[in-house]
Structure formats: structure tokens, C-alpha cells
Amino acid sequence: MPDAPVESSYPGERLGLPAEGPGSIARLGRRVGALFIDYGAAYLISGFFAWDPLAILAIFAAIQLVFLPTIQGSPGHRIFGLRIMRVDGAWVGLWRPIIRTALLIIVIPAVIWDADQRGLHDKAAGTVLVRA
């Protein structure tokens, strides 16, 4: 008989993360706040280029691709006290931010979550967004 799935009492428990405090799974409010900061910055920067929707998206992607591997999160993440890391706790490297950002831009993978509140974009990249 196959083993029954293990239920966790809080998001991130199956990943070995704490329930709250530093290292715990980033909650929705902080994630949305960080998204608004990053997208707002892209919107303002694109004003120099006539607010082209594709320019906004390209600038948003560039913000993610530059800052995720260098400061462990986008400016919005860092302002809201979040950081991104691999599931095993190591540095995200260079290719994981590319996969994560490509799927984040598509939007749908980012709004489908698992029990650990990780979007499909994080699962595909092998990353997790945690409190700093």
C-alpha cells in the first residue's frame, strides 16, 4: 500500500523551513507589495521610452534578471524583507532567475501554488521566496 501524503501544519514545513520569522515562506501580502514595487519601477523607467507595454515588461524582466542573482531578490523583494534562494538554501545561480522570470512574465504559473505557497515559476526554477 502506498504511503499517504504527509500533511504539513504550515507552508514550508515539507521544505524544512521555519513556521515564521527569517527563512519562513514569504506570504501573499509581501509578495504582492514587492511585485507592485518592481512593476511600478519598470513603469516609471519606461516613461523615458514612451510607456510602451512591451518596454515595461522588458524592464521588469531586466530588473528580475539583474537583481535575483546579485542581491538575492528584486528591489521590491528586498524592500519587503524577502529573499530568493534555492530549495537547498544555496545561491540561485544564473540560469534559475531566467526560468523563474520567463514564467513570472507569463503570469499563470505565478498564480498557481502548491501547499508550500510556491508558484509554479518557483517550482520549475527550484527556488523559494522566503523572509530575510
TrEMBL record:
Domain RDD: 52-126
Keywords from the named record: Cell membrane, Membrane, Transmembrane, Transmembrane helix
The keyword ATP-binding belongs to this UniProt entry's keyword annotation: no
One Pfam family of this chain: RDD
Membrane-topology descriptor: Multi-pass membrane protein
Transmembrane segments: 41-68, 89-113
Cellular compartment(s): Cell membrane
GO CC, any one term: plasma membrane
Protein name: Putative RDD family membrane protein YckC
Lineage, opening ranks: Bacteria, Bacillati, Actinomycetota, Actinomycetes, Micrococcales
